[in-house]
Amino acid sequence: MSLFANITFFEVSMALVFVGLAERLLLGYAPAEMVGAKGWLIRGDIEE
Predict the structure, then answer these.
(1) pTM for the complete prediction?
(2) Which residues contact 40 (CB under 8 A, 6 or more apart)?
(3) pLDDT-above-70 percentage for the chain
(4) Sequence-distant (≥ 6) Cβ neighbours of residue 43 within 8 angstroms
(5) How would DSSP label each residue in 18-32?
(6) Sign of CA dihedral 24, 25, 31, 33
(7) What whole-number distance in Å separates Cα of residue 39 and Cα of residue 46?
(8) 20 to 30 Å CA-CA from 33: which of 1, 3, 17, 27?
(9) 26 neighbors 41 (Cβ within 8 angstroms)
């Protein structure tokens, strides 16, 4: 049986929603050194 046979559309869509929400929270509340223009985790367009 394939590894991906038991993954449903709902699980994939919920994973995408969770990743999008986590990214928005990180960009909004994490320090600029972490998610700023030269951030080590996410490079975002955030004014410092």
Answers:
(1) 0.65
(2) 33, 34
(3) 88
(4) 35, 36, 37
(5) HHHHHHHHHHHHS-H
(6) negative
(7) 10
(8) 17
(9) yes
